[in-house]
Amino acid sequence: MHSFSSNPKSKIIKIAGAGIAGMSAAINIKKAGHDVVVYEKQSMAGGNRHGDYEGFDNWIFNDSMENFIISHGFNFKNLPTIPIHQFTVHMENRASFPVQSPQPFFYMVKRGSEQDSLDQHMYKQCKNVGVEFKFNTPARGDCDIDSTGPSKAAAYIKGVNFKTSLKNQVHLLLGKKFAPKGYAYLIIIDGQATLATAFKKVKNYKMDPLQNSIEYFTSKEISIPKENMFGSRGSFSMNTMRTFQRPFKIGEAGGFQDFLFGFGMRMAMRSGLAAAYQLTGEVKSAKNIMRDLNRKRKISFINRIILEQLNNNQMEKIADLFVISDEPLELLKHAYKWNFKKILRWIRFRKRFEVRPA
Fold first, then answer.
1. What is the count of structural domains for the chain?
2. 146 and 24 part of one domain
3. 141 and 173: one domain?
4. Is residue 237 scored above 70 in pLDDT?
């Protein structure tokens, strides 16, 4: 750690990691008139992704996806996004059921090195404004911003990508069989499909949650080949972005994510914008963003702990609330409101579980 220079233009600002958080910081720092170099150990932006689809939430933040992308320094035009108004919920001991909303629950975007991915969309715009990238280059020790991803695994993802002729659809699987202390999902968009399970390791758990999910959908006559398997990990640490100290940890490196369902892209980009503001002298704007982000992280932390304590019957009761609601998206938005009850739960929960602030 070292203090800021009194003259922020006196040297090039260095960023470790060309993820969406790092690129969000880079483009805003460059637009503010500073030189930026991004170091990335992969050979290209999005090189550590699998070409699968991920979701931009539509409930944690109030602004639309288009306004959000624009406010973070990027052009929304030509970014392929797919609004999801409906998905099907599957549980172990009841029939599957649809949940639908007049407003999109989330927007799907492709992640990875393909030309139509979010990563490449952001990379090209960073390059166009003059951000310098050094690929196949590990992060330097004197970087101002750390956007390298999680350092400690607390959750795991196992999945498979495959091609299919099935129509576009999204499925959510809940229950210990499919994902202990987590969830599994099947996403099919334009002939490309991803089945994955995000779970925590549980003592004496002998099953393979991905295999169980594959067998479940096979029983529903959805054939899932196993050629393109992948795995990754996630962290539940919640570091603090320390004012006036470097390197700023943003994105997953700083625990800027949604702990409940993993919808962390908006959180990651927002943390990058906060770091950019701090480094370019917009300290008040940086503090306002951080105040809001930290509240949302704490709320998602609380929601995650509550989820992990639910048994299958309790999960079913909560799922039923979404089925009977005319505006299920409002239920999710309400779950992310900061209030006195959430403050008390934060005080109660924050030191009791393995998911805690660093």
1. 3
2. yes
3. no
4. no
Q: Which domain holds residue 305?
A: 301-349
* Distance (Å, whole) CA 225 – CA 207: 20
Structure tokens at 286: 């940086």
Extract the runs of DSSP E, i.e. beta strands, from the chain: 13-16, 36-40, 53-57, 82-84, 86-91, 94-100, 106-110, 132-135, 145-146, 155-163, 169-173, 183-189, 192-199, 228-234, 248-249
Is 68 inside any structural domain?
Answer: yes
> Is 291 a domain residue?
yes
**DSSP string spanning 32-79?**
TT--EEEEESSSSTTTTS-S-EEEEESSSSSS-HHHHHHHTT---TT-
Residues 199 and 258 reside in one and the same domain: no
Least confident interval from 3-7, 10-14, 31-35? 3-7
Model pTM score: 0.89
3-state class (DSSP) for residue 352: coil
Across 225-243, average pLDDT? 71
Q: Which pair of structure tokens corresponds to residue 4?
A: 């800021």
Is the four-CA dihedral 253, 255, 261, 266 of positive or negative sign? negative
Same domain, 136 and 33: yes
What is d(CA 46, CA 23) in angstroms, rounded to the nearest whole number? 11
Q: Is residue 245 part of a domain?
A: yes
Q: Which two tokens stand for residue 176?
A: 């210990």
List the CATH number of the domain containing 32: 3.50.50.60
